[in-house]
């Protein structure tokens, strides 16, 4: 064997030993709770503490929101309004669990995701209650009220024109939103089963689920935009558009924000800190930011769902009829 081959073999052996050492010191699997707690450093401990404090503040605001709803909101709006409002403490509770138990991240994300989809349909039902029911809305609307050219399909369907509101068109809108909790629950429950059984297989097949998840969400958001943009100009006192925005922000923050945080944390943190893998660090930062945002959205919702004095008589009259 010549000297060149000996040098190559030594380099290959050195690279291989370095790779093995890195793989041992930088694990890709999420740590157990014991490993996680034993390996906490000051930064992550502070992040978790801030997350808990923010969550507690969100619970307080949500409690005030619910008390306000129970005291001032007409009876037929109360239950659905509360279901929509408690999405913020639900998300923060799951964020705390995910921050303390890293392996529960996907399950917690699934729970918050499904609850949002349920809240979206409940919000649609709440809007229908605001307008006095579908039949009352059909009678009170004009021939140019129904408009399907709304985001995210406004550019894809230029041939659709404004038209009169009918039962079939409202049924179409309702079905677009109703499929959200059904389709998303089936998809995410299936993914969770695979995730629990085999993480590697989960990483391989999740890309095949993404198109179905995205198409279902786009269809549901389209339906919500249709009903909100129909109702808001005619019933501005209910602040339907603002309530829709503060609800939709939950989905955007939960799904888009992790991509941003992934890049930031990867750039500013070291690539290895066992047992706090980079994925755990990203998760901790994300949950802290999410809890802060849920606090802000809760405060915003507190103002939107507060019944103004000038509308109280109108709401009470609507309830009595």
TrEMBL record:
Pfam entry (one): Solute_trans_a
Protein's UniProt keywords contain Transmembrane: yes
UniProt xrefs under SMART domains: Solute_trans_a (SM01417)
Main subcellular location: membrane
TM regions (residue ranges): 43-62, 82-101, 113-131, 171-193, 205-224, 245-265, 285-305
Keywords in alphabetical order: Membrane, Transmembrane, Transmembrane helix
NADP found in the keyword field: no
Membrane topology type: Multi-pass membrane protein
UniProt subcellular location: Membrane
InterPro entries, per database record: Ostalpha/TMEM184C (IPR005178)
Name recorded for this polypeptide: Organic solute transporter alpha-like protein
